[in-house]
Amino acid sequence: FQYLKRFEQGCDLATFWYEALSVEGSPAECLQLFLLHCGIVDPSWAELRNFTWFLNVQLRDCEASVFCNPDFVKDTLKGF
């Protein structure tokens, strides 16, 4: 949710890191963003769960990768 919220606001996600145990927005706002970005017109709860699980895994791996760390790559991969 934190990434999707910042993406909607046009923030630079390359320098953002997930803040564990941080509460942002309301449950309704969270659900609205998931529905907007999941890519399915009328998703089931299972499809929403799979979307959020997959997104979470990908973002966690991205944060853990040295190649996605802006301090390591500097501006060599700008826009990648």
TrEMBL record:
GO terms for molecular function: ATP hydrolysis activity; ligase activity; ubiquitin-protein transferase activity. The keyword Ligase applies. GO terms for biological process: negative regulation of non-canonical Wnt signaling pathway; sprouting angiogenesis; ubiquitin-dependent protein catabolic process. One of its GO terms (cellular component) is nucleolus. Keywords: Ligase. The keyword Nucleotide-binding does not apply. This is RN213 ligase. The gene is Rnf213_2.
